[in-house]
User: Fold these one by one.
Assistant:
Number 1:
Amino acid sequence: MSFFNPIYLQNAVRAALDEDLGRAGDITTLACIPAGQKASAVMVPRKAGTLTGVPIAQASFHIYDPSLKVETLVDDGTRVEAGKPVLRVSGDARSILTAERVALNYMTRMSGIATLTSRYVDLVAHTQAKICCTRKTTPGLRAFEKYAVRCGGAMNHRFGLDDAFLIKDNHIAVAGGIKQALRAAKAAAGHLVKVEIEVDNLDQLREVLDEGADFVLLDNMSLDDMRQAVALSAGRVKFEASGGVTTDSVKAIAETGVDLISSGSLTHSAPVLDIGLDIEMI
C-alpha cells in the first residue's frame, strides 16, 4: 500500500535519526551495552487500533544499521489487537536500542491517525459519503500523515497548494466576488486541475451553480442547509462538507447526501496508538 517516494522517506528518517543522535550518539546504549551483543525485539500494540507506519519503522532500523533483520508481521492498514506483535527486529543490540524511538515515533503517530480515521469511515459506511483529510498536518510529516489517512480507509484531499484550486472566503473577498474568483480560476486551470469553491450559505451556492464549478465546499452549514444544497444542485456539482466535523456529528452529515466530508482532526488531533518495543535476549 505504500506509495512513498523512497528518497523522501530516507531523507525524513535520516533527519529524525540525526535529531535523536545529536553530536555524541546514544551515550547510554554505548556505555551500558557491550559491543557485539545480539538481541531480538518485537513491536507490540498496547491497545487495539489500525496499524500504519511499518515501512518507516523498517527504514529507521535499516538506515541506522543495514545489517539488522526486520520482519513484517502485520501489514499497514490492518486492524490489530492489543498484545499481538506487528514487527520483529533482530541483530546488533546497540543498533536496535538506538533506532527504537524513531521507529516507534513514526509508527505510533501514524497508527493513531489511521485508527481515528477508521472510526470516521465506519460511522459513514452506510452512506455514499467519503471521509477525507485536510492540509492541517504536522510540518514536514504531511506525506506520512496523509498516507496514514489512506491506511485508515479514507481519501486524501490536496497535498499542497499546487494540487487543485480551492477558492476560500478570503480569496472571494479579495477577488471581488464569487463570479470573479471562479472565472479567474477556471481561466488559469489546466484540463486536469479541478476547481473547488467554499460557500457559507445557499445564496452563495446559487451564484456558484450559475457560474459553474467542480466541487463546492459547504463550510459550517447546518444539516438542513446541507440537505437543501444537495437538492438545489441536482447533481451539477460534488459537495464537500467541512467545519467542526467530529465523530459525534459525522454520521448525520453523511446522511444529508454530501459526497465528501473533510476533517482536520484526523491529522491534527489524533491521539497516538500506544506501541512498545519489547527486547528478548538471544
Number 2:
Amino acid sequence: MVAIADTRVISGNESIRARKVSVYSQSDGTSLFIMTSGLRSVRDKAVTYFEEELYEREEPYDRLFKVVNAFSDQIRRVIAEDKASLEESGLHFNIFTLIGGKMVNDKEHKLYLIYPQANWVEIGYGTPYHIIGSSGYGKPVLDRTLKFEDSMHFALKVGCLAFDSTRISAADVDFPIDVVLFFADSGKMVEHRFEREDLSEISDGWHERLRNSVTNLPSAWLDRFFDKMSGAAGSENLAVRATYPS
C-alpha cells in the first residue's frame, strides 16, 4: 500500500502545517497507519484518545478490523463530547479516516474507511485507491491510470501526480507531503516527507507533457467544427450589417 497525505491545515484566516497521517508499531512487530481529513480539533482529540487506548493495552491487536473498531469508539466519544457545541457554533462535525496495515492474524493487508458517524467499510479489490479530503481534482488522474495490480513504484508515481493536480486547484492542499509505504511481505512501513523542491522535476515535467499531449491530439474533427463556426460567424456579421445600413 501507498499512503500520501499533505500537511496544510486551514484554520480561519491562518494556514499551518500539521501531519495528517500517523504510523503505529505494536509489540508483536506489526504496524498500521491512520490518515484523517476534516476538522483538525476532532482529529486531534480522536487520535489522542486512541493512542492512550493503544499504549495501555496489554496485548496487541491481532486483527486490523479491531483497530478500526477501537478508533471508531473514540470518534463516538468525541461525538458525545463535542458535536453539539461544534454545530451550535456553525461547524459541521467532520472526520474521515483511512486505516491500513496487516495484523498478525490477518490473511492479507487491509484498508478501511471510517465515516464521520463512526461506521466503516473495507476498501476491497474493486477499488484500487480511495481519497479523503479534496477528492475531486486528483481522481481523474487515478481513474485513468491506476489498476489494482500495479506496482508500488507506479502507484507512488501516479499518486504524486494526483496530489500535484489537487495542489494546483485546491487552496487547502500543499507541500510538504508525507508518504507511507507498506510492504505486505515483511509487514514493514517506511515514512518519508517530500518538500516542494523534491518533486519540482516531476511536477514541471507532468505540466509540459500534459500540454504537449493536448497539442498532439488529432484535430481534424476540431478543424471541421471551427470551419463551420467561421462560416456561421460570417453570415451573422452580414446580417448585422444589413440591419444597420449606412
